[in-house]
Amino acid sequence: MHSRFNTRYEKWQINSHGFRGPEIDFTAPYGINRIMCMGASETLGLYEQEGMEYPAQLRTILDKKTPRHFQVINAASLGTSIPKASQNYTLWLSKFKPDVVLYYPSPAFYLDESPPAPVKLGSGAKPQKNRFQFRISRKIELVLKKNLPDSIQLQLKQWQIYRQTRNHGSEWGWKSPPSDRLELFRSHLVAFIENISKSGARPVLLTHACRFSANAIDGDRYQLISWRKFYPRASEKCLIDMEDAANNIIREIGATYQVPVIDLDKSVPKGAENFADFAHFTDAGARIVAAKLADALVGMNE
Question: What was the pLDDT predicted at 114?
Fold first, then answer.
């Protein structure tokens, strides 16, 4: 599961290997450390201006700090969970022989109705055909977001959540992170780093940063409801607690398996300045992430 080769939509341009960024060869130039950034939409880049997503800013910072020493690949793709990322690495990304793999997991995926799982592959699988799609729906959505008052948009989102939850009993919802999903997150992440290490690359884990602090339920309700719309089984408190619990698991795995952990959760200040929505960065937030990663990479290479 990866971005389609040689495509462009609005500001997103995908190269001939399915990566957002400049063209590269399968083999890195001699003496160059190849850094592969993996993750979902937070890594691919969503709200940032073109060229301001954190892998692109990381490339710029490293070129200034240590010219002709690092090559950064943005190998993220939308909605890619840990098992799908691991599968994609085995089938495709490992061919590019990265020296370091920076992985930014999305814990909220484990609050979906169905937990993350690999893509089912088989001899009968066929590539999806190109389908004509009208883009007017996205344009209407953008116009509504720009012009409807937040109060009305909030009511619409609350109505959507109500429609998704009204036919379920009270036991269906989660008030706190479910233990089985946390254990699944842990096992998937351990399998991922073992897969990366087996290929000869060095895995580096990143904790997940989000817009909300513990008091977000009262202070940033619009964005929190916008987030919950995607995960209606989880209460607002469950969403925030899931971030904390998953980040603790990432830190524990790093310590247990001697994998470096770059703690973005503690490095990127909460709030609207650094997050355009619940978890996707602004240009400023992506800049903080890129600077933190650059310092860590240079330090590891010394």
Answer: 93
Nearest of 107, 124, 57 to residue 285 by alpha carbon:
57
Exposure string of 86-114, with b = 16+ CB inside 10 Å and e = fewer, is bbbbeeebbebebbbbbbbbbbbbbbeee
pLDDT band at 150 (very low <50, low <70, confident <90, very high): confident
Q: How far apart are CA 224 and CA 215, in angstroms?
A: 11
Q: Is pLDDT at 166 greater than 90 in this prediction? A: no
Mean pLDDT of the chain: 89
Please give the Cα distance from 230 to 103 (Å, whole number).
Answer: 23
| pLDDT given at position 168 | 86
What letter represents residue 96's amino acid? F
Q: Which two tokens stand for residue 207?
A: 């904790």
How are beta strands 12-14 and 7-9 bridged, if at all? Answer: antiparallel
Phi, psi of 232 (to 5 degrees): -65, -20
- What is the C-alpha separation between 139 and 298, in angstroms, rounded? 42
Pick the CATH number of 7-120+178-213+238-301 from 3.30.450.40, 3.30.710.10, 3.40.640.10, 3.40.50.1110: 3.40.50.1110
pTM, to two decimals: 0.89
Q: Does residue 240 come out as left (phi exceeding 0), alpha (psi in the -120 to 50 range) or beta?
A: alpha
What pLDDT was estimated at residue 41? 96
Residue (of 41, 118, 43, 44) closest to 87 by Cα position: 118
Pairing between strand 202-206 and 261-262? parallel
- Which of helix, strand or coil describes residue 199? coil
Q: Tell me what pLDDT residue 274 has.
A: 96
* Domain parsing of the chain, residue ranges: 7-120+178-213+238-301
Residue 133 has pLDDT above 80, yes or no: no
